[in-house]
Specification:
Strand order of the largest sheet: 2-1-3-4-5-11
Largest sheet: 6 strands, parallel
Strand content: 15-25%
Structural class: alpha/beta
Number of helices: 12
CATH topology of the largest domain: Rossmann fold
CATH superfamily of the largest domain: Response regulator
Order of helices and strands: HHHHEHEHEHEEHEHEHEHEEHEE
Number of strands: 12
């Protein structure tokens, strides 16, 4: 691998001159500039980003912690973050976190001198993590953006969706179609976003007679497998005409279970999810959901973080609400007795 000294030797200049050409730190003559650039090309020299970062006191690296990169919700947001970061000259250091290693991963990001961090929904599902991060950030002035989680006492900006309203909106859509017995498959109920969506379901359902949520609430795990398993219970143990799943992955599991049991969707069972993952539109039938453009959400998070890194935004925490909408497709229809 060629070094800066190899380039300097071929160009017939000092390695300091090569450094000035690469970094634009001092003006050199046009002839010298062209000679150095030609030498770089002939040597196939790639400047060290690490060395340049040390000189600039920035690494141009963004840390990204996601709960499950295999989940399309996380993957689409990550895509939006990467697109913006690449355009603005930042690289992404991605961590697909596990419960036992969340704080260790944050320590690793700090040790690698990332310029800022983005944390996706679900990262704070354990109460010990928030105070742990608060303690770590007390000693580091590190820009931090949270997606779908309130910062509480942490110095961080946040992009928030109204999880309660998403649950209420999805359930109200089913009620407006004439459904009265609507099961809910939640995510883990120790997660604030999951509990809020369940509360939205309860709020809408309370307008119906004889509503007893204990008999219609099933706790899942935000993945397809739990959607399949719990939908089988709902379809064999209840007379529900509709299911509200607290994310699209579990809703896709409901569609799969209905297919296994030869239950026609939406004729015999209406299904709605939350999030708006692109995969939902290719399900059979296409999934009705409450959601937003997740790639755009990731781009918004990256732009916010980079603006903080560049000191284009100053002052206290920014709390930005993002809008979710009802996306009508083919998995819901009017109640048929």
């Amino acid at each position: 691998m060629s070094t800066i000294k190899d380039v300097a030797l071929k160009a017939g200049v000092s390695f300091t001159t090569v450094s000035h050409v690469i970094n634009g730190t001092r003006k050199v003559s046009e002839i010298t500039h062209q000679r150095v650039m030609q030498a770089i090309k002939e040597c196939a020299y790639v400047p060290s980003q690490v060395a340049r970062s040390l000189q600039a006191s920035q690494t141009h690296m963004i840390g990204l912690l996601v709960p499950d990169i295999s989940n399309p919700f996380c993957a689409e947001i990550t895509q939006g973050i990467e697109q913006v970061a690449q355009k603005q000259g930042f690289a992404i250091m991605l961590y697909n976190h596990h419960q036992q290693t969340q704080t260790q991963q944050f320590d690793d990001l700090l040790s690698r001198r990332v310029d800022g961090v983005i944390l996706l929904a679900g990262i704070f599902q354990h109460s010990f993590l928030a105070p742990a991060l608060q303690k770590k950030l007390a000693h580091h002035r590190l820009p931090l953006v949270l997606i779908d989680h309130e910062p509480q006492d942490i110095v961080a900006d946040s992009l928030l969706s109204d999880a309660f309203e998403s649950g209420r909106m999805a359930t109200q859509h089913l009620i407006d179609l004439g459904h009265q017995k609507i099961a809910c498959i939640s995510g883990p109920l120790n997660m604030p976003v999951s509990q809020a969506r369940v509360d939205g379901w309860k709020s809408a359902m309370q307008q119906l007679p004889n509503f007893c949520y204990e008999q219609l609430l099933y706790e899942g795990s935000f993945n397809i497998a739990s959607g399949v398993e719990l939908a089988k219970k709902i379809l064999t143990e209840t007379q529900c005409s509709a299911v509200f799943a607290c994310n699209d992955m579990m809703a896709l599991g409901v569609l799969t279970a209905a297919s296994y049991l030869n239950v026609q969707v939406p004729q015999k069972l209406s299904v709605i999810g939350v999030d708006g993952i692109a995969m939902g539109q290719y399900a059979s039938p296409a999934l009705t959901t409450v959601g937003k453009d997740l790639i755009a959400l990731g781009a918004q998070a990256a732009n916010l973080l980079i603006s903080r890194i560049k000191n284009q935004i100053t002052g206290g925490n920014l709390r930005v609400m993002t809008q979710s909408n009802l996306i009508l497709r083919q998995s819901t229809t009017s109640f048929q007795a």
